[in-house]
Amino acid sequence: MQTIYVRDDETQFAGVCEACLTAEETLYAPKGEVNVAGTLGRYADVAFRTCRRGHRLIVRRVRVMEAA
Question: Which sequence spans correspond to the domains of the chain?
Fold first, then answer.
């Protein structure tokens, strides 16, 4: 299952489903377009999304460690 990573200071994400890239292009699901987008609440660490073709993706927040 594909994972989209979101930085800890971001709430919006967008990406291309990797499964769609290997699938045949159709009228309703052309290749090369952003087909997964949404928001992840600031205090949520994980979410699940589905692309237009029905492929499931995980959206996961990553905590960025700042240099001291």
Answer: 2-62
